[in-house]
């Protein structure tokens, strides 16, 4: 049997689900045109189905008169139409006719666009006709596999550079022809590229294509595209052009070379930092294709490619100049958090006190958490108290003082509090944890989803919990027993938002598939779906009377629907960017919306009139909104790490709650082990923590851009910090003030390290150089030049201070003579940029971690020979560190884990699983009792390793 979703062959007829993609096989076989069905007055005859998607079914068929095989694509949107059992035609319900006709027009446009084009790398259209209340597109029958399938077959899901060159050359040629005809594809991805046995590379599926000078403007678009590959202008319904296809081709190029996609444009728009780390000129090609601003990209696809392709040698490598890195946006300072308290448990969520750790974290040796992480959900209990769920767990805050009354340490991507305030649910990966908020006790954990949980919500009576997941399903759970009651299937992509109706009978879900669906809670049956959205449905909310449903989506749109009929009531537009959160006030008078444009808009829920815009968040997205029970206060939680409080009557800013943290880049122990310095991304501040008490002591402010690296001097008197503002700063630890600024680098400073005697400071930058500084005078002593790619990610002195090692994006670690500045040797493996290097305490060995490699490598410093590999991580390794006695090596990885190794035998001793995002930095305390790990979730964790 064949899977019509992923095209996997040879599946047993007894299988209910595809072993490759998980699709329900019987459902895919329903409502197909029967074999030998004839179309267009007996011109074509259907043989069997080849595949199906949300809007169509593709068949193998043949032209009866010519006896020629063809492929026929039938327009059949399953959610909008039904197959008539007698004649095979489609019937469309009255309330879905408009949408059906809109997408039928798009289907016909795809056929007409393809018919205009004639190119060996474009599928050839032979016929287009309408009948049976639908339309059919007849194309040449192509065999082979998709590029996606070829990538899946390769180690690391990446291709040899020469193969990449062949594919991109064909695609560029095909796209140049379409651009010349005034057509833009706008959905370039591996599944839309067919590789035939004859060697043809064919671009298929022009369903998202648009013609010259198209601007969507304020009207709704019927275009389909893939958000993971799409440029910002396509997502935002702005003018598109050849630059749009170049962006998607750049995303595809990076994926073929590395096995991974760059962050989607939406993630980068809300502040996720990224830039390519490739060999030239792949680096230059990708970097020039992927600026977020369309006018910063090339506008001629042939010129973009041919300039570099002309220099390709027989091995597939290319030479060209390095393009400059884009200038970062300045991040505002994050205010200092209030101190927390801890005491014994009480009788209710308000009386509870203490610091409660997830038992499975305690079992791994987790001792303390520094930083609460990025805000995910906010719940106002009254005008004085709020529960904030973040990536590090949940906390109850006194809003007047900013004091945390209790904290629950449980890594989480989403959280929910029952209406009676007794239960807390936190979702981490595929697991959901229940915590009793009267005692702080963890009650149970439940599992069932096959991929990460995005959203959880309690029913009004607290008896049910709904969860939405990346596995495309919703699940309903009994909160008392933890038993799964229903699995709700229908969404075709990740489920990102959920809401119960006030009576608890209906559940609404929003998805990345751009639909919102309503479900009967008792039976689990889908009631209906709303397909008007053209972007991800980020948030859904019911009005207090249950009659109106609000949904937040992009571009910059808030929708209101009649809950009972599914009819659109109105479309509200005031935001400049995508709406991320919506909420009704308890009395139903107000509707609030939060957006990527950093603002909150308050609406009159009855009339849809904009009342006021609330501005105060400094950057990034407003991800969550919550009204107080009396409706007088609105809280907004943002990725700028603050919760802001607003007077709903006047719009006045009542204050903010600070203390949540963004992605952490670097941590360092003071030599006596008492203090921990933490540098965070999107943060211009170095935070100093008391390790024993877990309290933040001080903030060191002065950098004008993000701080990338920190290091203590051996005597503990000084702290050095390297920043994207191109400076290194020295801080006096006794006085807590800046001592001096070291200037000279012409690009971001990624790494800093003191020599063992404390007299020298080394810094690695994005300007190709490592620089040595005199700590006392601040004078630059020398530059170490030799790396062939700009970024020097890491620097480390040997224990005797004679040598300096530097790891770069040129795939090498280089060893330098500190006195002369002479390069002594290179340690090289084609594993991508060297993100981290560390000397063993005896100076004989060097550990390195490569950015595109899941392996830690140990090298002989004297000979440069690779001694052994430490394998176990399932994603690239970001950081390595030796224990002070040299017996152990720690590594932090993008697989969200920290691993501890025996440095002699290379045996893995322990895995620490407490982070929800990549581990960016690891370090041992000077007494070797503790291991600290920092993560891009904004949390630093302290692990007890004394007994290992």
Keywords:
5-stranded mixed sheet, Phosphorylase Kinase, domain 1, globular, 10 helices, 10% helix, Transferase(Phosphotransferase), domain 1, 6-stranded antiparallel sheet
Short description:
With 948 residues, this protein is mostly beta strands. Helices cover 10% and strands 41% of the residues. Mean pLDDT is 87; it is low at 213-223 and 310-346.
What does this protein structure show overall?
The protein has 948 residues and is mainly beta. Among the domains are: 31-140, Phosphorylase Kinase, domain 1, CATH 3.30.200; 152-309, Orthogonal Bundle (Transferase(Phosphotransferase), domain 1); 664-944, Methylamine Dehydrogenase, Chain H. Helix content is 10%, strand content 41%. Strands 1-2-3-4-8-7 form a six-stranded antiparallel sheet, with helices on one face. Helix 4 runs antiparallel to helix 9 (301-309) and helix 6 (242-258) packs across helix 8 (282-289). The two termini are 52 Å apart. The relative contact order is 0.06. Residues 315-344 are annotated as: Disordered. ATP binds at residue 73. Keywords: ATP-binding, Kinase, Nucleotide-binding, Repeat, Serine/threonine-protein kinase, Transferase, WD repeat.
Query: What distance separates the N and C termini?
Result: 52 Å
**Protein structure class:** mainly beta
Q: Please compute the radius of gyration using only Cα atoms.
A: 29 Å
Biggest sheet character: 6 strands, antiparallel
Q: What is the CATH class of the domain at 664-944?
A: Mainly Beta
Net shape: globular
The strands making up the biggest β-sheet line up spatially as: 1-2-3-4-8-7
Kindly report the name of the CATH homologous superfamily of the domain at 664-944: YVTN repeat-like/Quinoprotein amine dehydrogenase
Unreliable stretches covering 5 or more consecutive residues: 213-223, 310-346
* Secondary-structure arrangement, i.e. CATH architecture of the domain at 664-944: 7 Propeller
Measured by DSSP, the beta-strand proportion falls in: 35-45%
Helix content: 10-25%
CATH topology heading of the domain at 664-944: Methylamine Dehydrogenase, Chain H
DSSP helix count? 10
Oligomer type: single chain
The tally of beta strands, per DSSP, is 70
Task: Give the averaged pLDDT, no decimals.
Answer: 87
